[in-house]
């Protein structure tokens, strides 16, 4: 199995979902990263790529991702890619790739624009690494 590591920002607050059969919690979120480059003519360009991510580690979902990860949080995610498919209401089968999270680290957030202080929900510097559930 191949491992993928992506560093980027959360596009929205993560969703903490409960599995219907087992009742176990999981986290689902979208991660975006932007690559900046120069075109052949010297003009700057950029490309933004989004990743649908899911974390099946219940302790990580409830104890770390849910309370501390927010829209705009800078994160480093490591995991493997899986094919996902589903049938829409119109009967058409849709295909997607998703990143199954094995490790996640929330990096320091940017200071709050209005106050110049770190947001209260930031756990990057205040979280005891021994308490991280993975």
What report would you give on this structure?
The chain is mainly β. The protein has a single domain, classed as Nucleic acid-binding proteins (OB fold (Dihydrolipoamide Acetyltransferase, E2P)). A five-stranded mixed beta barrel has the order 1-3-4-6-5. Strand 2 and strand 3 form a beta hairpin. The longest helix has 11 residues. The protein is globular and about 55 Å long. The chain starts with a strand and ends in a 28-residue tail after the last strand. 19% of the residues are buried.
Roughly what fraction of the amino acids lie in strands? over 45%
- Adjacency order of strands in the biggest sheet: 1-3-4-6-5
Unreliable parts: 112-134
Distance between the termini: 19 Å
CATH class: Mainly Beta
Structural class: mainly beta
- Shape field: globular
Instruction: Determine the CATH superfamily.
Output: Nucleic acid-binding proteins
Q: Could you name the CATH topology?
A: OB fold (Dihydrolipoamide Acetyltransferase, E2P)
Label the CATH architecture: Beta Barrel
Provide mean pLDDT, rounded: 82
| β-strand number | 6
């Amino acid at each position: 199995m191949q491992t993928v590591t992506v560093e980027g920002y959360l596009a929205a607050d993560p969703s903490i979902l409960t599995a219907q059969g087992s009742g176990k919690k999981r986290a689902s979120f979208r991660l975006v990263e932007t690559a900046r480059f120069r075109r052949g003519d010297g003009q700057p360009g950029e490309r933004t790529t989004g990743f649908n991510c899911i974390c099946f580690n219940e302790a990580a979902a409830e104890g770390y991702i849910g309370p501390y990860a927010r829209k705009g949080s800078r994160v480093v995610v490591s995991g493997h890619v899986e094919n996902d498919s589903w049938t829409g209401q119109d009967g058409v089968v849709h295909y997607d790739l998703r990143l199954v999270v094995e490790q996640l680290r929330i990096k320091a957030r940017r200071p709050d624009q209005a106050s110049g202080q770190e947001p209260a929900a930031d756990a990057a510097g205040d979280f005891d690494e021994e308490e991280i559930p993975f």
